[in-house]
Amino acid sequence: MAGNFRNLNLIFLLLFFINCNSNSIKDETIGKEIIDENMNKFISNLYGLSTEYHKNGMFPIFMLKKAGGSDFFKEHCESILEMGELNTAENCKKYFYELINKEGFNINGDTKYLSFDIRSLSEVFTKKNIQVIENESSIKSNAYVEIEFSNIFIDNKLKKAFIVLEETDFIEGQYGGKVDIYFFSKRKDKWVFYKKLMLITA
Fold first, then answer.
1. With 191 labelled, which of 35, 85, 127, 160 sits at a CA distance of 20 to 30 A?
2. DSSP category for residue 136
3. pLDDT tens string 50-76
4. Is the predicted pLDDT of residue 122 greater than 90, yes or no?
């Protein structure tokens, strides 16, 4: 009898992991589709570089291959020095979480974000002179724009998603750029962009 219960528990556990893996693959597919279908929008909203650094009418763009490879909220906020009793890092993260949760989400420090590799998903990559790279060390240019999709989150119950896009502009030893968050909602079978907020700028 005990053996039967043990086998039943193993079956339920196996089904649970299969379901979780299936949902993860589904969300990854959605994330890739959102990035692919909105690449023109992402690129058109970049600060970019002045025309003197353009090649063939475009500035060079390098995109990190790993989407969701970093947590912007954690990395940015924890890079801020703690100031006395103000608990700056925690307050910083709280600010971003509350800002995003106004859209109906319920994210916090324990939220798990999507992570997957980006390949040349569409012809936009060729038209916009976008090169997919493993890491920054492979960039051999004195003026370029680097973009990274960091936090990617999809809430299928809420039928909403968001993507954080980090832009770094490098010109002859000087850095600039900004971080934007894009919000999407599911309408029928399509994920549609509805809002963009700038999180930080430099």
1. 127
2. G
3. 888 777 777 888 899 899 989 999 999
4. no
C-beta of residue 38 within 8 angstroms of C-beta of residue 86: no
Which residues pair with residue 163 across a beta bridge?
152, 182
DSSP 3-state assignment of 186? Answer: strand
Residue 3, CB-side half-sphere exposure with 13 Å CA sphere: 0
pTM: 0.84
- How many other β-carbons are positioned within 10 Å of the β-carbon of residue 145? 25
Q: Which amino acid is at 178?
A: K
* Gyration radius of the chain's alpha carbons: 20
Point out which residues pair with 65 in neighbouring strands. Answer: none
The pLDDT, as a whole number, for residue 22 is: 47
Sign of dihedral through CA atoms 42, 99, 115, 134?
A: positive
Task: Give the span between the Cα atoms of 11 and 104, in whole angstroms.
Answer: 35
CA dist 181 and 198 (Å) reads 6
Flag whether pLDDT at 5 surpasses 70: no
Find tokens 């974000």 and name the residue: 113
Q: How far apart are CA 44 and CA 25, in angstroms?
A: 29
